[in-house]
Amino acid sequence: MTAETPETLAGGRLTIDRDALADNWRDLAARAEGAATAAVVKGDGYGIGLEPAVRALAGAGCDTFFVAVPEEGLRLRATLPEATIYILDGLFEGAAATYAQANLRPVLSSLPEIEEWTAHRRQNPAAHAALHIDTGMHRMGLGLGEAEALLAGPGLADTLGLTLVMSHLACADTPDHPLNQRQRDAFRAVRARLPDVPASLANSAGIFLGPDYRFDLVRPGIALYGGAAVNDAVNPMRPVATLEARILQVRDAAPGETVGYGATEALDRPSRLAILAVGYADGYPRHASSSDQRPGALAFLRGRAAPLVGRVSMDLITIDVTEISDARRGDWVELFGPNIPVDEVAERAGTIGYELLTSLGRRYHRRYRP
Ligand SMILES: *Cc1c(COP(=O)(O)O)cnc(C)c1O
């Protein structure tokens, strides 16, 4: 972690609304109805900061967390001594003792892992784990055939100390994709063989697919942070992260002049331009650039949208403030937040809100509210 950059010395300012994060968790927990609601906090809490994120979530009532790697699990354990912590990437070779010390539960996903975990459990019978079944994504998880073979033997749940059986949906963001039902049905069949083990299938988007996708525990990530879970639907979540950039200077430019590297955009009117102190080195996507062929992302100042002009460079962005006559040096311009949804910037850049959030840079002044 880098030292906190003071606001007066930062080109960008990132504000994290912890109340919105807690509200989003409570909102999803209400939507999950009968199921328990965990929180996925991998990727440094989707870019907003692991420790502040989990403190706010625990305050809202969340007691079960998923991270990707054991290093994140150790950080989480240091913050929340009582929480249930699952490691989605499973058991790292030779690391079982560390998992045991910090009470981290691996999400077991392959036969070699299961073998290593079985040996570990002979010495540590109190250790717990989850089992991940691949129901059609072909990323993590035991294949259905492998699972079938294991389940044919006796007492798998006891041998592994299973507290969760899970799978992951590949297309939950597309509600009418046929793979959703196929995965749900395959998961139902496997979990019926482990009737005493709680089951989990739904990520954020899965919660919105309906009650038969929720099982015993739901695992939202992106929706907690205000990102859009479901494609082409109204996003009901509150924005959590607001990114703003400092105006370094405001300048005039004449019609026909071009802006930025590559001279990709020519002005078609007398323009006022504001130069902002954030760029792709801060994780703002270069693909959000504007050109004569293709409009770029929007920024927001004093109640008005201001379009990017020309290319995003490493440390600088140019926006058009011709219509915002009082824009001036030192103003903070919203790059995403309550007025410019992170997913809208992501879409202009050909990516997703997840990537923008988890790419948030290290140079920002970070403010956690309240
Ligand atoms: C990242 C992840 C989630 C959370 O997904 P969102 O789409 O962010 O809600 C849930 N489960 C698994 C296995 C994941 O990898």
TrEMBL record:
GO CC field: cytosol
Keyword Isomerase: yes
Binding annotation for substrate: 139, 314
Organism domain of life: Bacteria
Listed cofactors: pyridoxal 5'-phosphate
Domain Alanine racemase C-terminal: from-to ranges: 240-369
One Gene Ontology biological process: D-alanine biosynthetic process
Signal sequence, renumbered to the chain: none
Pathway: Amino-acid biosynthesis; D-alanine biosynthesis; D-alanine from L-alanine: step 1/1
TM stretches of this protein: none
Database matches in HAMAP family: Ala_racemase
Functional description taken from the UniProt entry: Catalyzes the interconversion of L-alanine and D-alanine. May also act on other amino acids.
Name used for this protein in its record: Alanine racemase
